[in-house]
Amino acid sequence: MELGMVGLGRMGGNMAQRLLTGGHHIVAFDPQPLAVKAAEGNGADGASSLDELVSKLTAPKAVWVMVPDGAPTESTIKSLAELLSDGDMILDGGNSNFNDSIRRSKELAESGIEFMDVGTSGGVWGLTEGYSMMVGGSDEAFARIEPLIQTLAPSPTSGYGHVGPAGAGHYVKMVHNGIEYGLMQAYAEGFELMNAREDMALDMAQIAEIWREGSVVRSWLLDLTAAAFQEDGDLSGLAAYVDDSGEGRWTVQESVDLAVPIPVITAALQARFRSRQDQPFGAKILSAMRNQFGGHAVRKAE
Description:
Number of helices: 13
Strand order of the largest sheet: 3-2-1-4-5-6-7-8
Strand content: 5-15%
C-alpha cells in the first residue's frame, strides 16, 4: 500500500521504517533534509515539499502526519487540505487534542477528504516491538488503511483497533496517557519510600528485577525502571524535573467536564508540576504557619 509520511522525527522515522520493512511504498517529507535522506536510505521515496509529496502519490491519496501537536499539526493539515482532493485521506498519528480532531474531521469533510486520528503508543521501542494503535474515523476509511495499521501494530491481529468515530482515537490515547501518569507516579513513590529506609540498605535495582518476574506489579514500565537503575544505580545523573506532554492535563479537564473523579491521575499530574518548582512558595507558606502558631523552627533560605 502507498502512503505519504510527513514528519520524520524519531517516532515518525521509525514508523516509516517499519512500514517500508512491511512492503509498503512510502513517500516521505520532513523540513529537515537529513531526515528525508535517512528515510530514502531505508527505501522511501523522498520529497522536498508537501506539494512534491502529494504529487508523487496516486489517487486516492493518503498522508500520515506525525508532527508536534498544536500549531505544527494545524498548519500541516491545512496545507495538505489545499493540495488533496475529494476521496483522499489525512491521518494524524500525533498527540493532538481530541476536540481538534473532531473539528478537523468536520472541516476536511467539506472538501470530501477523510480524516483519521490514530492514537499511537510505543515510543522508541515501536520499531521492533510494534505500536499500540487506537484509531478514530469512519468504518470505510478504517477498512482502507487497516493493512498499514496491521504492519505498525505488534501483530496483524493484536494491539490495534477501530475505537470509534473521528476524535475517538485521540480520546482513548489521552486517557491511556493519563493512566500512564498514575502508574508512573505509583512506582516512583514506592521506590522513593524504600530508598528512604537507609538502615536496610535496599538495592533498588535488585528489587526492580525481582518484581519483573511473577509479581502482581510487573509491567513494561517496571522493565524500563529496571533498565534505568542498571544504567545509573542511584539516578544521580538525572534532575528531579518531570515534564508533561499535555494529555494528562486534558484527561483531568475531561474528568471535571464529565464530573468523573480521577484522583490518582490528578495527583500524578500535580506531582509533575511540583517537580519543576525550585523552593515552592506553598511549602514556604506551610513553614511560616507552623512557625506562627507553634513556634516551630524554620529553615532560612540560603
